[in-house]
User: Which sequence fits this backbone?
DNA sequence: ATAATTAACATGTAAATGCATCTAAAATGA
DNA sequence: TCATTTTAGATGCATTTACATGTTAATTAT
């Protein structure tokens, strides 16, 4: 049985580990002239959806603010990373699809992101950062 | 020995769990008329430092951007949550100290934050969200 | 000692965020 | 069917962010 303090400790560990890795990966991406990680997330979800996705759907999945996401999509469309078609059967909506350019960018970003995930998780492990999470299960 | 794909999976789990919990807690705080969680983080670090902290130190610990943190501190000072004294022995620097008002706000925010940590971690556990992290250790 | 470099923090500015609001199109229901 | 409500997405606007740069003080090198 894990008490409350263990959940707190697990959260702190979780949060610190993720923040550190995320921050380093973003810095590396920006330093290499690439966009930030939330661009990556959008590209990744779109790449996994061959039939495209509705903005609302993606926005909720990625926990974006609605208006921010609307503009995010506009920026990415302007950069040629995705297209916005009118949604068949729903005159209000759009369907987003990744472009070849988007796929290429995602792959390039992944090369950097992957390295940081590998290093960051390995380091966290070595530092025992996951111990509080493991402790939840006793 | 854990291979690379396991680190990826652990990262995805980590990231999703933290993002979800963080997002919910922030929504709840804002809905209750409180500031966002990075305000909380600053207050918490200051509360644990009876002699105060230098902005640079805090900024690096919390992985803030330098200029953003400078303005963040200015806002919090304006709201009476912390004070900025000249640093003894360093004419360039400041020392930040939490105020009583800051302590009160932190405690109020914690009541909400704590609940979300408890629920969020418990839910993640129930959903098996930590499995990929546990898998790292086989 | 003093000149050159580095460090701490602030600020100008352009871009991003998020709340409130708007428009147009479904869905609901009387 | 026609009026009401809800939903998808865009946009105006004030706040926030982050890069670049400025200012002042400490450190280092000559």
Assistant:
């Amino acid at each position: 049985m894990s008490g409350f303090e263990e959940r707190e400790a697990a959260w702190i560990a979780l949060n610190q580990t993720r923040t550190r890795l995320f921050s380093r990966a973003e810095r590396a991406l920006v330093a290499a002239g690439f966009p930030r990680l939330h661009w990556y997330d959008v590209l990744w979800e779109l790449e996994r959806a061959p039939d495209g996705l509705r903005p609302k759907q993606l926005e909720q999945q990625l926990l974006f603010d609605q208006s921010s996401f609307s503009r995010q999509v506009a920026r990415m469309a302007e950069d040629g990373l995705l297209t916005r078609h009118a949604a068949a059967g729903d005159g209000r909506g759009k369907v987003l699809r990744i472009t070849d350019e988007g796929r290429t960018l995602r792959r390039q970003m992944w090369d950097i992101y992957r390295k940081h995930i590998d290093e960051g998780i390995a380091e966290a492990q070595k530092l025992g950062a996951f111990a509080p999470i493991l402790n939840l299960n006793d």
Q: What stands out?
A: The longest strand of chain B covers residues 82-86.
